Structure formats: structure tokens, C-alpha cells
Amino acid sequence: MLTQQTYIMLKPDALKRQLLGEIITRIEKKGYQIVQAKLMQLDAPIIAEHYAHLTDQPFYPKLERYMLSGPVFGMVLEGEDVIRGMRNMMGPTNVFEAAPGTIRGDYATDVTYNLIHGSDTPETAEAEIKRFFG
Ligand SMILES: Nc1ncnc2c1ncn2[C@@H]1O[C@H](COP(=O)(O)OP(=O)(O)OP(=O)(O)O)[C@@H](O)[C@H]1O
């Protein structure tokens, strides 16, 4: 049994498309606890910090515009093996590989506009929770 925390961020398209309730319902039905949550408008420096591994990619300007395009909903979730569990529920980054039943597989059709972010390791979860919740 491994109770851990992860940082989940519902991206601007999730809010614009009014999918917040739908996605949060899935998370709650799965059994994960929301222990912190807030609506935030990100700025360019925090986006660059969060996506530091991607700033030299040709698609980064598009990713930055997307993340600046409206508020995001950040959450800290707690549960058994929640980091891996949420990555499974989200589906892969490339929505064309995301199976039906996953959040990206069911609701997203574009590699950039893929609705949700989730930490991928305990180390990044800790850093991201600190970044967005202090
Ligand atoms: N090849 C690409 N073309 C366009 N956008 C991309 C591409 N790869 C990634 N992105 C965008 O950058 C985000 C971060 O990519 P990363 O490789 O960190 O994947 P991820 O860990 O699944 O995503 P996230 O960090 O948002 O959870 C993706 O979620 C997507 O919005």
C-alpha cells in the first residue's frame, strides 16, 4: 500500500469546454481524495518553469499560448499509487494513442489541447505541488 500525492492540472480547454465537472467526477468515483484545489491564471514564467524540459521544442510557443489562453484548475490528489493511477486514467500524451475510457481518449482530439496534466514521478509531484501550492 502506497499512499501518495500528485499534482493534477485541468488545462484551459477543460474549462472552456465545461468538462471540469465531468473529469472531477471520474476522479472522485475512482476514489482519490482532493486535498487542495484552486483556479489560477498562469503567467509565462511559471509555464516555462513547469515545462522547462520543452522550452526548446518547436511546439513550445503554441504550448505557451495554450496555457496562457485561460485559467487552469490545479489540484492535489491523494490516494493509493495515485501518480500511476492518474496517468492511466489520463491516457498517453499523444491523444491518438489514448484508448477509449481514458480522459484524453474520450474527450481530446489534439496533441497540444489534451485537457489534463498529471505528475509523472514522486519527485516531480513534490516539486509541482510546491510550485503551484507553495
Ligand atoms: N509533439 C507535440 N506537439 C504539440 N504539443 C505537444 C507535443 N508534445 C507535448 N505537447 C504538449 O506539451 C505538454 C507537455 O508534454 P509532456 O511531454 O510533458 O507530456 P505529458 O507529461 O503527458 O503532459 P503534461 O506534462 O501536460 O501532463 C503535453 O501535454 C501537450 O499539451
UniProtKB/TrEMBL annotation:
<feature type="binding site">
    <location>
        <position position="11"/>
    </location>
    <ligand>
        <name>ATP</name>
    </ligand>
</feature>
<comment type="similarity">
    <text>Belongs to the NDK family.</text>
</comment>
<keyword id="KW-0808">Transferase</keyword>
<keyword id="KW-0460">Magnesium</keyword>
<dbReference type="InterPro" id="IPR036850">
    <property type="entry name" value="NDK-like_dom_sf"/>
</dbReference>
<dbReference type="GO" id="GO:0006228">
    <property type="term" value="P:UTP biosynthetic process"/>
</dbReference>
<protein>
    <recommendedName>
        <fullName>Nucleoside diphosphate kinase</fullName>
        <ecNumber>2.7.4.6</ecNumber>
    </recommendedName>
</protein>
<keyword id="KW-0418">Kinase</keyword>
<dbReference type="InterPro" id="IPR034907">
    <property type="entry name" value="NDK-like_dom"/>
</dbReference>
<dbReference type="GO" id="GO:0005524">
    <property type="term" value="F:ATP binding"/>
</dbReference>
<keyword id="KW-0067">ATP-binding</keyword>
<dbReference type="GO" id="GO:0006183">
    <property type="term" value="P:GTP biosynthetic process"/>
</dbReference>
<dbReference type="GO" id="GO:0046872">
    <property type="term" value="F:metal ion binding"/>
</dbReference>
<feature type="binding site">
    <location>
        <position position="114"/>
    </location>
    <ligand>
        <name>ATP</name>
    </ligand>
</feature>
<dbReference type="GO" id="GO:0006241">
    <property type="term" value="P:CTP biosynthetic process"/>
</dbReference>
<feature type="active site" description="Pros-phosphohistidine intermediate">
    <location>
        <position position="117"/>
    </location>
</feature>
<dbReference type="GO" id="GO:0004550">
    <property type="term" value="F:nucleoside diphosphate kinase activity"/>
</dbReference>
<keyword id="KW-0479">Metal-binding</keyword>
<keyword id="KW-0547">Nucleotide-binding</keyword>
<feature type="domain" description="Nucleoside diphosphate kinase-like">
    <location>
        <begin position="3"/>
        <end position="134"/>
    </location>
</feature>
<dbReference type="InterPro" id="IPR001564">
    <property type="entry name" value="Nucleoside_diP_kinase"/>
</dbReference>
<feature type="binding site">
    <location>
        <position position="59"/>
    </location>
    <ligand>
        <name>ATP</name>
    </ligand>
</feature>
<feature type="binding site">
    <location>
        <position position="87"/>
    </location>
    <ligand>
        <name>ATP</name>
    </ligand>
</feature>
<feature type="binding site">
    <location>
        <position position="93"/>
    </location>
    <ligand>
        <name>ATP</name>
    </ligand>
</feature>
<dbReference type="Pfam" id="PF00334">
    <property type="entry name" value="NDK"/>
</dbReference>
<keyword id="KW-0546">Nucleotide metabolism</keyword>
<feature type="binding site">
    <location>
        <position position="104"/>
    </location>
    <ligand>
        <name>ATP</name>
    </ligand>
</feature>
